[in-house]
Design brief:
The two termini are 25 Å apart. The chain has helices spanning 17-27, 67-83, 112-123, 152-160, 177-184, 229-240, 259-264, 294-305, 311-320; strands at 8-12, 34-38, 44-48, 56-60, 88-92, 127-131, 146-149, 167-171, 191-200, 203-210, 217-225, 245-253, 270-274, 288-291. The protein has 2 domains: 5-149 and 294-320, 3-Layer(aba) Sandwich (Rossmann fold); 152-291, Rossmann fold, CATH 3.40.50. Strands 10-9-8-11-12-13-14 form a 7-stranded mixed sheet, sandwiched between helices. The radius of gyration is 20 Å and the shape is globular. By secondary structure, the chain is α/β, with parallel strands linked by helices. Helix 1 packs across helix 8 and helix 2 (67-83) packs parallel to helix 3. The protein is built from 9 helices and 14 strands.
Length: 321
């Protein structure tokens, strides 16, 4: 499929340039030049170094740490692109920050996932492309098209190549059961659930394991690994319950507060994540395996430009495995 590159531009901001390069290679759309400028007081501006008039523009920017800076970069560049007469603006936001605040748990709390959706829309974004939103209903917060791609086929493909025996897929909490059940379907495997409670944010206590994991190879599946506390506590509980080996898989490796070092020292045999969030050298550990989502996103851009179904990309992954 050919693309008129004179009418398509691909930009990346500062959050994940290696992923953007992978997307550029897969889509055969070269990265265009944009400069991100920070003033002494922390304000952000951008300088687009080539014309975008009449172009369909794609911008790669997950809103990972520092989340607020990366969100502002997107908003500022979107405003600049609008004022420069871009025909359309698509934000490729593989990791959608603030998504964990998608509802009010207590009174007087914000719903920041909706706030970010509003900010992107008001700034002038025409479409958002994301990977594994924390909750599928976040799509309803947008009044513009949003494509929420699953990473499960890519993660499942990696594990299927290992030819693991007696697999049990484990949801680390009740909220992830739907995700775990879908993941288990790739292996025709049974499902187990870890019953946990959170005494405070970023801390987890395992209360029970629902399901049989004795002599099983367990794969815990989640969308986000932040401090890693949930997975580590879950792995310990699974081993105590008789599991022979425990793997962990997640789409987004936020990995804060020394999480990679703790995961390396944990009972988990391997932690598999995607590159929706850039993993710098300080966070790399032997147990952590990162798979690239870039080729899939690059192909998705081509499908969007040609008004073709995007689901075909993921259906093919399932058929190949």
């Amino acid at each position: 499929m050919s693309i008129d590159q004179r009418k398509v531009k691909l930009f990346t901001l500062s959050a994940n340039k290696p992923l953007a390069e992978s997307i550029a290679k897969a889509s055969k759309i070269p990265l265009s030049n944009v400069e991100v400028i920070r003033f002494a007081d922390g304000e952000i501006t951008t300088n687009i170094e080539e014309s975008v008039r009449g172009n369909h523009v794609f911008v790669v920017q997950p809103t990972s740490q520092p989340a607020n800076d990366h969100i502002m970069e997107v908003l500022v560049l979107t405003d600049a692109l609008k004022r420069a007469s871009a025909a359309s603006i698509t934000i490729i936001m593989p990791y959608f920050g603030y998504s964990r605040q998608d509802r009010k748990v207590k009174s007087r709390q914000p719903i920041t996932a909706k706030l970010i959706a509003n900010l992107l829309t008001v700034a002038g974004v025409d479409r958002v492309v994301s990977i594994d939103l924390h909750a599928a209903q976040i799509q309803g917060f947008f009044d513009i098209p949003i494509d929420n791609f699953p990473a499960a086929p890519l993660l499942a493909s990696y594990f299927k190549k290992k030819k693991l025996e007696n697999v049990v897929v484990v949801s680390p909490d009740h909220g992830g059961v739907t995700r775990a059940r879908a993941f288990a379907s790739f292996f025709n495997a049974p499902l187990a659930i870890i019953d946990k409670r959170r005494p405070e944010p970023n801390k987890a206590e395992v209360m029970n394991i629902i399901g049989d994991v004795k002599n099983a190879t367990c794969i815990m599946i989640d969308d986000i690994i932040d401090t890693g506390g949930t997975l580590m506590a879950g792995a310990e509980a699974l081993i105590k319950a008789g599991a022979t080996k425990v793997y962990a898989a997640a789409t987004h490796g936020v990995l804060t507060r020394g999480a990679t070092e703790r995961l390396q020292a944990s009972e988990i045999a391997e932690v598999v994540i995607t590159d929706t969030i850039y993993l710098d050298d300080s966070k790399k550990q032997p147990k952590i395996k990162q798979l690239s989502i870039g080729p899939l996103l690059g192909e998705a851009i081509v499908h969007i430009l040609h008004d073709e179904p995007i689901s075909q990309i993921f259906n093919r992954i399932q058929e190949d495995n």
